[in-house]
Amino acid sequence: MKIYWRSKEGSAAPKNAQFYLRTFSNSALIPINEVISELPQQSERLAVLSRTDLPDINRWIKLIDQTLLEIESGRLEKVVIARETTLSLPHAPNPFEIAAKLSAHAVGTAIFCIDFGNGKSIVGATPERLYQRDQFSIQAEALAGTRKRAATVSEDKCFGDELLNSEKERREFEIVKTYLTYFLAPFCNNAPQLGDTRIHRTSTVQHLHAVATGTLQLIDDGKMLNSFHPSPALSGWPKEEALEWIKQNEPFERGYYCGAVGWQTDVASDWAALIRCCYIDGTIAKLYAGTGIVKGSDANKEWDELESKLSVFKEVFSCLS
Hints:
9-stranded antiparallel sheet; Anthranilate synthase; 7 helices
């Protein structure tokens, strides 16, 4: 198994870092033993023979309506519902060429490419860092709420201001922020400090973002990761009820999507959520995107949000715009 990694800040991992991967539903950490430091040249946009969405738009609307009924009943407060988009390609792509394309165009994200061998790989550009540790200092990130980017600076700022002032988006974000400090508290000497809510912009979308900082009592990355992951930004709240709703109602298995990837050494670590990603198996590419459903969500707008998130791959696949 091979991995290419570039952090949100554009840096590589230390040479002595050990990389690990985990799926959405299994907490076991899978070691990755070979690190690729250089990417090949970018490829041309890949032709797409066909596209299938699971669920499709009609089934999506029904699923969101059912989810909103559960939220209205009080059994759930938030659920992250995802979609699997399957693309049929004329030939098997080189995943590291896709990573090169993402690296050139996807700002504000960590770029990753994991090659499992036998034509199977997962590649993506994730804006969501779970946490980053330097010695006993830790920074964990909250990310939720979405607006697309705009063509002009003024319109882009307008979208960002709308996001900051949206009652529905702030409510969704507060769930993630509250969980963040709740997760960190048992591991820290003192109460974690939560920074201001800001806008985090990628090349295609913008999100509400905040950073919580703390000083750890001891270092145990495996225990912290399993405690934190999956956060409400990936699953929902209450956590166990949301996970069960996803298991019973999403029409596909998430697998590595919404899992975690990262590295650790004795003195540092950096972990990211496996989102905005594409799983490749030969000539089949499966793209994943999800959206947080809370009271006030609209199924059609959430579908459009999925499209905006997948547009990170617009320079890779010919069918995306």
